[in-house]
Amino acid sequence: MADYRYVRQTDGFTCGPTVALVASAALDPAYGATVTDDAAEQHRIHAAANFIWPRKLGTTPWGVARVISGHTAALGTRYGWRRFRGDLRAAVAAVECDWPVAMLIGASIPRHWVLIVGHADGVLECFNPARGSVASIPVADVAARRLEALGFPRAFALVLPTRYI
Predict the structure, then answer these.
(1) CATH at residue 99
(2) Which superkingdom is the protein from (predicted)?
């Protein structure tokens, strides 16, 4: 698979599948090596994650967790989700142990997925699939609802390894 910094979602509904693709490829390099068409894989993941949920409503937290978990079983880890309650300590701990964390963000309603891929000195590195780039976001800005650099101000949910939930 191409370097995740260059992967972009194919349409307005595939941010969740793109985040799941990038996280899965990072955690399962053998899977990542098989991905030759990012766009086709995003749509395959979208269909697999949303077998009941309407695709035009995006991807649910449990769908993103299920996709990533499919690539972490060999590592003895499953992903799950929880609502964001203003505390990122678990997410930071996971990322510092090389487990990417998906974060569902929005304004008044959840609308977009990003992937936390790094942390240093109180700053998160967040992959944004809409832009195919990484933005630096201070941890304090997440709780303060200042995520405009990612396109929306507020976090709604986190998808992370269950040992950190």
Answers:
(1) 3.90.70.10
(2) Bacteria
Radius of gyration of the chain (CA): 14
CB 69 within 8 A of CB 83: no
CA-CA distances (angstroms) from residue 130 to 70, 75, 112?
24, 29, 9
Tens digit of pLDDT per residue, the chain (165 long)?
Answer: 456 667 999 999 999 999 999 999 999 999 999 999 999 999 999 999 987 888 888 999 999 999 999 999 889 999 999 999 999 999 999 999 999 999 999 999 999 999 999 999 999 999 999 999 999 999 999 999 999 999 999 999 999 999 998
Question: Could you tell me if 126 and 117 are in contact, meaning their C-beta atoms sit under 8 angstroms apart?
Answer: yes
Instruction: Give the list of residues 6+ apart from residue 84 with CB closer than 8 angstroms, or none.
Output: 103, 104, 142, 155, 156, 157, 158
Assessment of whether the complete model's pTM goes beyond 0.85: yes
The helix (H) or strand (E) run that includes residue 81 is: strand 79-83
Q: What's the total number of domains in the chain?
A: 1
Question: CA-CA distance, 59 to 85, in Å (whole number)?
Answer: 20
